[in-house]
Amino acid sequence: MIAFTFPGQGAQKSGMGAPWQDHPAWELVAQASEIAGRDVAALLLSADDEELRQTRNAQLATFTLSALMGRAVTEAGLRANVFAGHSLGEYTALTAAGALEFADAVRLVTERGEAMQVAAQENDGTMAAILGLDDAEVEAVAEAIDELWVANYNAPGQVVIAGGPDAIAAGSEAAKAAGAKRAMALSVGGAFHSPHMSPAQERLDQALSNTTLHNPTAAVWSNVDARGHTVGDELRELLGQQLTSPVRWSHSVADMVAAGVTTLVEIGPGGALTGMARRITSDTTNLKVNTPDDIANVIETIAAEGSST
């Protein structure tokens, strides 16, 4: 079984769209620009890293590029049995699985990015990656400190906390005292996937209420409960919890593997999910698509290994 996985905010980098400029799927960039009222091509081709770090820019650019890569992979003949995406990437997964129309997804992602940026400006917050502690140990650290929460379960020994700057500082010290190898501050614009994002979730819920989510063509794993879902209404309800809930990525990957997934194909800029997959499980072939040339290589590898589509 093959899973397509899609990255979230943080995967973006300057010039990331250049390899795809001449690909037929690039037409989605013009569509996204018209729907969002933004110059998405400029974000993908000429924006510098500082501009792309802004939440409103990072999310729209990363989603659009990942979505066009997903279309290119599908049009090349590769099919997935299941889909998943990390945080923002869940919207790309839903689009690739047919649960969201591309235009609706662009509108939701645009609203999500704007809402999260405003919420972050209203609630001073940040995040840090705790390396070398298990899930329960990081949970214990967060529970002992006010205004500190677990935000991302990325991989065994890599858990992200979110909260106000003072809470993050205290949590980082407490984690190191508990045996963490490192507490690494993240360059992010807010305390994402925590109660700090409640205003953004409320704003996004209004947009979700006006959006149709179809039943996907195959199961989409939700960040909220780390389970696969095939009912559009269930997926909408879970998106209504996503911004204030932790991303259970390591749990999602483990559950997909338990369901029979043997090949994980990361589609989108960067390679963070592929690196996480290697830490989560030794039972999968881990592939990624960053450029058009990667598509043929992925198809060839899967064919050689006899992976079922």
Topology:
Layout lengths: L1 E5 L20 H10 L3 H6 L3 H5 L1 H21 L6 E4 L3 H8 L5 H21 L3 E6 L3 H9 L4 E8 L2 E6 L1 H13 L4 E5 L11 H12 L9 E3 L6 E2 L2 H11 L6 H10 L4 E5 L4 H9 L4 E5 L2 H14 L4
Parallel strand pairs: 1-2, 1-9, 2-7, 9-10
Antiparallel strand pairs: 3-5, 3-6, 4-5, 7-8
Question: Describe it for me?
Answer:
With 309 residues, the chain is α/β, with parallel strands linked by helices. It has 2 domains: 2-121 and 195-305, Malonyl-Coenzyme A Acyl Carrier Protein, domain 2 (3-Layer(aba) Sandwich), CATH 3.40.366; 126-186, Malonyl-CoA ACP transacylase, ACP-binding (Alpha-Beta Plaits, 2-Layer Sandwich), CATH 3.30.70.250. It is built from 13 helices and 10 strands. It has helices spanning 27-36, 40-45, 49-53, 55-75, 89-96, 102-122, 135-143, 165-177, 198-209, 232-242, 249-258, 272-280, 292-305; strands at 2-6, 82-85, 126-131, 148-155, 158-163, 182-186, 219-221, 228-229, 263-267, 285-289. The strands form 2 sheets. Strands 8-7-2-1-9-10 form a 6-stranded mixed sheet, sandwiched between helices. A 4-stranded antiparallel sheet has the order 4-5-3-6. Helix 1 packs across helix 6 and helix 5 (89-96) packs antiparallel against helix 6. The longest helix is centred in the N-terminal third of the chain and has 21 residues, at 55-75. The radius of gyration is 18 Å and the shape is globular.
